[in-house]
Design brief:
Number of helices of chain A: 8
Shape of chain A: globular
Order of helices and strands of chain A: EEEHEHHHEHEEHEHEH
Oligomer: homodimer
Helix content of chain A: 40-55%
Largest interface: A-B, 38 and 37 residues
Amino acid sequence: MEPNLYIGLVHHPIYDKRREVVATAITNFDIHDIARCARTFGIGGFYVITPLESQVQLVERIVHHWVEGVGSIYNPTRKESLSLVRVSRTIDEADQEISHLWQKEVKRVATGASPHPRSIGFGFLKKLLGDRNHPFFLLFGTGWGLTQEVKDRSDYVLAPIEGQGYNHLSVRSAVAIILDRLLGDRTM
Amino acid sequence: MEPNLYIGLVHHPIYDKRREVVATAITNFDIHDIARCARTFGIGGFYVITPLESQVQLVERIVHHWVEGVGSIYNPTRKESLSLVRVSRTIDEADQEISHLWQKEVKRVATGASPHPRSIGFGFLKKLLGDRNHPFFLLFGTGWGLTQEVKDRSDYVLAPIEGQGYNHLSVRSAVAIILDRLLGDRTM
Protein backbone atom coordinates (compact mmCIF):
# COMPACT_ATOMS: atom_id res chain seq x y z
CA MET A 1 0.00 0.00 0.00
CA GLU A 2 1.24 3.50 -0.89
CA PRO A 3 2.62 5.25 2.22
CA ASN A 4 0.48 8.31 3.02
CA LEU A 5 2.93 10.07 5.34
CA TYR A 6 5.58 12.48 4.07
CA ILE A 7 8.01 14.50 6.14
CA GLY A 8 9.46 17.96 5.60
CA LEU A 9 12.57 19.39 7.24
CA VAL A 10 12.11 23.15 7.15
CA HIS A 11 15.12 25.51 6.90
CA HIS A 12 12.95 28.58 6.19
CA PRO A 13 10.87 30.19 7.68
CA ILE A 14 12.51 29.28 11.00
CA TYR A 15 13.15 31.14 14.26
CA ASP A 16 16.68 31.73 15.41
CA LYS A 17 17.84 32.10 19.03
CA ARG A 18 16.38 35.64 19.20
CA ARG A 19 13.09 34.61 17.56
CA GLU A 20 13.98 36.32 14.30
CA VAL A 21 12.89 34.59 11.10
CA VAL A 22 15.86 33.13 9.23
CA ALA A 23 17.00 30.44 6.81
CA THR A 24 19.15 27.87 8.60
CA ALA A 25 22.02 25.93 7.02
CA ILE A 26 21.72 22.31 5.92
CA THR A 27 23.22 19.79 8.37
CA ASN A 28 24.61 16.69 6.70
CA PHE A 29 23.68 14.49 9.70
CA ASP A 30 20.04 15.60 9.45
CA ILE A 31 19.81 14.33 5.89
CA HIS A 32 21.31 10.94 6.70
CA ASP A 33 19.64 10.29 10.05
CA ILE A 34 16.19 11.38 8.93
CA ALA A 35 16.40 9.55 5.59
CA ARG A 36 17.35 6.36 7.43
CA CYS A 37 14.39 6.80 9.81
CA ALA A 38 12.11 7.53 6.84
CA ARG A 39 13.20 4.30 5.16
CA THR A 40 12.89 2.30 8.41
CA PHE A 41 9.30 3.40 9.00
CA GLY A 42 8.16 3.32 5.35
CA ILE A 43 7.63 7.06 4.74
CA GLY A 44 6.49 8.20 1.27
CA GLY A 45 9.17 10.88 0.91
CA PHE A 46 11.47 13.20 2.85
CA TYR A 47 11.44 16.83 1.67
CA VAL A 48 14.36 19.06 2.57
CA ILE A 49 13.01 22.61 2.34
CA THR A 50 15.40 25.48 1.72
CA PRO A 51 15.11 28.60 -0.45
CA LEU A 52 18.89 29.07 -0.75
CA GLU A 53 20.27 27.94 -4.09
CA SER A 54 23.69 26.97 -2.65
CA GLN A 55 21.95 24.80 -0.06
CA VAL A 56 19.70 23.17 -2.66
CA GLN A 57 22.83 22.23 -4.59
CA LEU A 58 24.50 20.90 -1.43
CA VAL A 59 21.60 18.53 -0.74
CA GLU A 60 21.53 17.44 -4.36
CA ARG A 61 25.26 16.71 -4.23
CA ILE A 62 24.92 14.64 -1.03
CA VAL A 63 21.99 12.67 -2.43
CA HIS A 64 23.72 12.14 -5.78
CA HIS A 65 26.86 10.82 -4.05
CA TRP A 66 24.95 8.15 -2.13
CA VAL A 67 22.23 7.29 -4.66
CA GLU A 68 24.19 7.30 -7.91
CA GLY A 69 27.84 8.07 -7.10
CA VAL A 70 30.55 5.97 -5.44
CA GLY A 71 28.65 6.07 -2.13
CA SER A 72 25.99 3.80 -3.63
CA ILE A 73 28.60 1.06 -4.05
CA TYR A 74 30.39 1.71 -0.76
CA ASN A 75 27.16 1.55 1.25
CA PRO A 76 24.03 0.41 -0.63
CA THR A 77 21.82 0.85 2.48
CA ARG A 78 22.43 4.61 2.20
CA LYS A 79 21.23 4.48 -1.40
CA GLU A 80 17.97 2.93 -0.17
CA SER A 81 17.39 5.66 2.41
CA LEU A 82 18.68 8.72 0.53
CA SER A 83 16.59 7.89 -2.54
CA LEU A 84 13.62 9.11 -0.42
CA VAL A 85 15.08 12.64 -0.25
CA ARG A 86 13.55 15.45 -2.36
CA VAL A 87 14.51 19.15 -2.28
CA SER A 88 11.95 21.96 -2.37
CA ARG A 89 12.36 25.73 -2.20
CA THR A 90 9.24 26.25 -0.07
CA ILE A 91 6.77 24.27 2.04
CA ASP A 92 4.08 25.06 -0.54
CA GLU A 93 6.20 23.67 -3.38
CA ALA A 94 6.62 20.34 -1.56
CA ASP A 95 2.95 20.35 -0.63
CA GLN A 96 1.93 20.84 -4.26
CA GLU A 97 4.18 17.98 -5.37
CA ILE A 98 2.48 15.60 -2.93
CA SER A 99 -1.02 16.90 -3.81
CA HIS A 100 -0.25 16.41 -7.49
CA LEU A 101 0.93 12.86 -6.90
CA TRP A 102 -2.19 11.99 -4.90
CA GLN A 103 -4.61 14.26 -6.78
CA LYS A 104 -5.80 15.25 -3.32
CA GLU A 105 -5.30 18.01 -0.81
CA VAL A 106 -2.51 17.32 1.69
CA LYS A 107 -3.14 17.63 5.41
CA ARG A 108 -0.30 19.54 7.04
CA VAL A 109 0.87 18.66 10.55
CA ALA A 110 3.34 20.97 12.31
CA THR A 111 5.58 19.73 15.14
CA GLY A 112 7.39 21.65 17.87
CA ALA A 113 8.78 21.55 21.38
CA SER A 114 6.13 23.76 22.99
CA PRO A 115 2.38 23.21 23.44
CA HIS A 116 -0.06 24.86 21.01
CA PRO A 117 -3.75 25.60 21.68
CA ARG A 118 -4.70 23.25 18.79
CA SER A 119 -2.30 20.43 19.74
CA ILE A 120 -3.40 16.90 18.88
CA GLY A 121 -2.01 13.77 20.55
CA PHE A 122 0.03 11.00 18.93
CA GLY A 123 -2.83 8.49 19.22
CA PHE A 124 -5.17 10.86 17.40
CA LEU A 125 -2.74 11.44 14.54
CA LYS A 126 -2.11 7.71 14.31
CA LYS A 127 -5.84 7.22 13.82
CA LEU A 128 -5.96 9.94 11.15
CA LEU A 129 -3.11 8.24 9.28
CA GLY A 130 -5.24 5.09 9.21
CA ASP A 131 -7.36 6.77 6.52
CA ARG A 132 -5.05 5.71 3.72
CA ASN A 133 -6.96 7.83 1.17
CA HIS A 134 -5.36 11.07 2.36
CA PRO A 135 -1.73 12.18 2.30
CA PHE A 136 -0.25 13.85 5.39
CA PHE A 137 2.76 16.14 5.51
CA LEU A 138 4.59 16.25 8.84
CA LEU A 139 6.74 19.37 9.22
CA PHE A 140 9.82 19.61 11.43
CA GLY A 141 11.67 22.85 12.18
CA THR A 142 15.44 23.28 12.35
CA GLY A 143 17.08 26.11 14.35
CA TRP A 144 14.76 27.33 17.11
CA GLY A 145 11.68 25.85 15.42
CA LEU A 146 8.84 26.47 12.97
CA THR A 147 7.35 29.98 12.98
CA GLN A 148 3.97 30.71 14.50
CA GLU A 149 2.64 31.40 11.01
CA VAL A 150 3.63 27.94 9.74
CA LYS A 151 1.91 26.38 12.76
CA ASP A 152 -1.20 28.52 12.34
CA ARG A 153 -1.44 27.64 8.64
CA SER A 154 -1.15 23.88 9.34
CA ASP A 155 -4.23 21.67 9.61
CA TYR A 156 -2.91 20.17 12.85
CA VAL A 157 -0.17 20.78 15.39
CA LEU A 158 1.26 17.67 17.02
CA ALA A 159 1.77 17.65 20.80
CA PRO A 160 5.41 18.03 21.94
CA ILE A 161 7.43 15.08 23.20
CA GLU A 162 7.18 15.40 26.98
CA GLY A 163 10.41 14.73 28.85
CA GLN A 164 11.45 15.26 32.44
CA GLY A 165 11.05 19.03 32.25
CA TYR A 166 13.58 19.36 29.42
CA ASN A 167 12.45 19.77 25.82
CA HIS A 168 15.59 20.39 23.81
CA LEU A 169 15.91 17.28 21.67
CA SER A 170 17.74 17.56 18.36
CA VAL A 171 15.44 17.53 15.34
CA ARG A 172 17.03 14.19 14.40
CA SER A 173 15.97 12.64 17.72
CA ALA A 174 12.51 14.22 17.52
CA VAL A 175 11.91 12.76 14.04
CA ALA A 176 13.04 9.31 15.21
CA ILE A 177 10.74 9.31 18.24
CA ILE A 178 7.72 10.76 16.43
CA LEU A 179 7.93 8.31 13.51
CA ASP A 180 8.31 5.44 15.95
CA ARG A 181 5.28 6.61 17.95
CA LEU A 182 3.19 6.94 14.76
CA LEU A 183 4.38 3.95 12.74
CA GLY A 184 6.62 1.73 14.89
CA ASP A 185 5.74 -1.79 15.91
CA ARG A 186 4.93 -1.36 19.58
CA THR A 187 3.69 -4.87 20.31
CA MET A 188 7.06 -5.98 21.76
CA MET B 1 13.98 9.07 42.85
CA GLU B 2 17.50 8.22 41.64
CA PRO B 3 17.41 7.17 37.95
CA ASN B 4 18.48 3.51 37.63
CA LEU B 5 19.22 3.50 33.89
CA TYR B 6 22.63 4.43 32.47
CA ILE B 7 23.68 4.35 28.85
CA GLY B 8 27.04 3.55 27.27
CA LEU B 9 28.15 4.45 23.76
CA VAL B 10 30.81 1.92 22.87
CA HIS B 11 33.68 2.81 20.51
CA HIS B 12 35.65 -0.37 21.30
CA PRO B 13 35.27 -3.34 20.91
CA ILE B 14 33.18 -2.69 17.77
CA TYR B 15 32.83 -4.39 14.38
CA ASP B 16 33.76 -2.51 11.25
CA LYS B 17 32.27 -3.06 7.78
CA ARG B 18 34.30 -6.29 7.35
CA ARG B 19 33.42 -7.56 10.85
CA GLU B 20 36.89 -6.85 12.17
CA VAL B 21 37.15 -5.60 15.74
CA VAL B 22 38.17 -1.93 15.85
CA ALA B 23 38.00 1.30 17.87
CA THR B 24 35.77 3.82 16.09
CA ALA B 25 36.22 7.60 16.21
CA ILE B 26 34.11 9.88 18.39
CA THR B 27 31.31 11.68 16.50
CA ASN B 28 30.46 15.09 17.93
CA PHE B 29 26.77 14.73 16.99
CA ASP B 30 26.53 11.47 18.96
CA ILE B 31 27.64 13.22 22.13
CA HIS B 32 25.15 16.09 21.75
CA ASP B 33 22.14 14.15 20.48
CA ILE B 34 22.47 11.32 22.99
CA ALA B 35 23.16 13.66 25.93
CA ARG B 36 20.03 15.65 25.05
CA CYS B 37 17.97 12.42 24.90
CA ALA B 38 19.51 11.29 28.18
CA ARG B 39 18.47 14.55 29.84
CA THR B 40 14.99 14.44 28.27
CA PHE B 41 14.27 10.97 29.60
CA GLY B 42 15.98 11.36 32.98
CA ILE B 43 18.91 8.96 32.54
CA GLY B 44 21.43 8.56 35.40
CA GLY B 45 24.52 9.06 33.22
CA PHE B 46 25.81 8.73 29.66
CA TYR B 47 29.18 6.95 29.38
CA VAL B 48 31.26 7.48 26.25
CA ILE B 49 33.56 4.47 26.07
CA THR B 50 36.84 4.71 24.16
CA PRO B 51 40.31 3.35 24.93
CA LEU B 52 42.09 5.96 22.76
CA GLU B 53 43.70 8.74 24.78
CA SER B 54 43.25 11.36 22.01
CA GLN B 55 39.55 10.52 21.84
CA VAL B 56 39.15 10.67 25.62
CA GLN B 57 40.64 14.16 25.50
CA LEU B 58 38.35 15.16 22.62
CA VAL B 59 35.24 14.20 24.59
CA GLU B 60 36.55 15.97 27.68
CA ARG B 61 37.17 19.12 25.61
CA ILE B 62 33.64 19.05 24.13
CA VAL B 63 32.06 18.52 27.54
CA HIS B 64 34.22 21.21 29.17
CA HIS B 65 33.26 23.75 26.47
CA TRP B 66 29.53 23.29 27.06
CA VAL B 67 29.49 22.60 30.79
CA GLU B 68 32.08 25.12 32.04
CA GLY B 69 33.35 27.09 29.04
CA VAL B 70 31.74 29.79 26.91
CA GLY B 71 29.22 27.28 25.53
CA SER B 72 27.56 27.12 28.97
CA ILE B 73 26.65 30.81 28.64
CA TYR B 74 25.77 30.68 24.94
CA ASN B 75 23.41 27.74 25.40
CA PRO B 76 22.63 26.70 29.01
CA THR B 77 20.40 23.81 27.86
CA ARG B 78 23.53 22.12 26.48
CA LYS B 79 25.14 22.48 29.90
CA GLU B 80 22.22 20.61 31.42
CA SER B 81 22.50 17.72 28.96
CA LEU B 82 26.28 17.48 28.58
CA SER B 83 26.79 17.43 32.34
CA LEU B 84 25.47 13.84 32.15
CA VAL B 85 28.45 12.75 30.01
CA ARG B 86 31.24 10.63 31.53
CA VAL B 87 34.24 9.13 29.73
CA SER B 88 35.51 5.61 30.37
CA ARG B 89 38.31 3.60 28.78
CA THR B 90 36.41 0.30 28.88
CA ILE B 91 32.89 -1.01 29.42
CA ASP B 92 34.11 -2.63 32.65
CA GLU B 93 35.46 0.68 33.96
CA ALA B 94 32.08 2.38 33.45
CA ASP B 95 30.32 -0.63 34.92
CA GLN B 96 32.48 -0.47 38.04
CA GLU B 97 31.78 3.23 38.46
CA ILE B 98 28.02 2.59 38.45
CA SER B 99 28.36 -0.45 40.76
CA HIS B 100 30.43 1.59 43.18
CA LEU B 101 27.83 4.39 43.20
CA TRP B 102 24.98 1.95 43.84
CA GLN B 103 26.95 -0.55 45.92
CA LYS B 104 25.26 -3.15 43.74
CA GLU B 105 25.96 -5.27 40.70
CA VAL B 106 24.91 -3.60 37.43
CA LYS B 107 22.74 -5.48 34.96
CA ARG B 108 24.12 -5.04 31.45
CA VAL B 109 21.77 -4.81 28.47
CA ALA B 110 23.25 -4.93 24.95
CA THR B 111 21.42 -3.48 21.94
CA GLY B 112 21.80 -4.18 18.23
CA ALA B 113 20.13 -4.23 14.84
CA SER B 114 19.95 -8.02 14.51
CA PRO B 115 18.03 -10.60 16.56
CA HIS B 116 19.86 -12.58 19.25
CA PRO B 117 18.79 -15.94 20.71
CA ARG B 118 18.45 -14.32 24.15
CA SER B 119 16.60 -11.18 22.96
CA ILE B 120 14.14 -9.62 25.41
CA GLY B 121 11.33 -7.27 24.38
CA PHE B 122 10.91 -3.61 25.28
CA GLY B 123 7.95 -4.31 27.56
CA PHE B 124 9.98 -6.86 29.52
CA LEU B 125 12.92 -4.47 30.00
CA LYS B 126 10.53 -1.72 31.01
CA LYS B 127 9.20 -4.02 33.73
CA LEU B 128 12.75 -4.85 34.89
CA LEU B 129 13.53 -1.13 35.15
CA GLY B 130 10.56 -0.81 37.48
CA ASP B 131 12.68 -2.49 40.18
CA ARG B 132 14.32 0.77 41.24
CA ASN B 133 16.75 -1.06 43.53
CA HIS B 134 18.95 -2.18 40.66
CA PRO B 135 21.02 -0.18 38.19
CA PHE B 136 20.91 -1.09 34.50
CA PHE B 137 23.54 -0.27 31.88
CA LEU B 138 22.24 -0.09 28.31
CA LEU B 139 25.03 -0.47 25.74
CA PHE B 140 24.92 0.92 22.21
CA GLY B 141 27.47 0.12 19.51
CA THR B 142 28.94 2.56 17.02
CA GLY B 143 30.36 1.47 13.63
CA TRP B 144 28.87 -1.87 12.58
CA GLY B 145 27.77 -2.72 16.12
CA LEU B 146 28.73 -4.36 19.41
CA THR B 147 30.81 -7.53 19.15
CA GLN B 148 29.34 -10.98 19.76
CA GLU B 149 31.46 -11.22 22.91
CA VAL B 150 30.00 -8.02 24.39
CA LYS B 151 26.49 -9.34 23.68
CA ASP B 152 27.30 -12.77 25.15
CA ARG B 153 28.75 -11.20 28.31
CA SER B 154 25.67 -9.01 28.86
CA ASP B 155 22.87 -10.04 31.17
CA TYR B 156 20.27 -9.25 28.51
CA VAL B 157 20.13 -8.42 24.81
CA LEU B 158 17.35 -6.04 23.78
CA ALA B 159 15.27 -6.89 20.69
CA PRO B 160 16.09 -4.83 17.58
CA ILE B 161 13.84 -1.98 16.42
CA GLU B 162 11.76 -3.59 13.67
CA GLY B 163 11.22 -1.43 10.60
CA GLN B 164 9.84 -2.15 7.15
CA GLY B 165 12.63 -4.62 6.30
CA TYR B 166 15.37 -2.01 6.80
CA ASN B 167 17.43 -1.92 9.98
CA HIS B 168 20.10 0.69 9.42
CA LEU B 169 19.19 3.47 11.82
CA SER B 170 21.95 5.72 13.10
CA VAL B 171 22.95 5.02 16.69
CA ARG B 172 21.58 8.51 17.53
CA SER B 173 18.12 7.54 16.22
CA ALA B 174 18.26 4.12 17.89
CA VAL B 175 19.03 5.68 21.29
CA ALA B 176 16.17 8.19 20.88
CA ILE B 177 13.63 5.50 20.00
CA ILE B 178 14.77 3.01 22.64
CA LEU B 179 14.76 5.57 25.47
CA ASP B 180 11.32 6.76 24.40
CA ARG B 181 10.01 3.18 24.34
CA LEU B 182 11.44 2.48 27.80
CA LEU B 183 10.83 5.79 29.55
CA GLY B 184 8.68 8.06 27.37
CA ASP B 185 5.19 9.17 28.30
CA ARG B 186 3.03 7.15 25.93
CA THR B 187 -0.38 8.07 27.27
CA MET B 188 -0.91 10.77 24.60
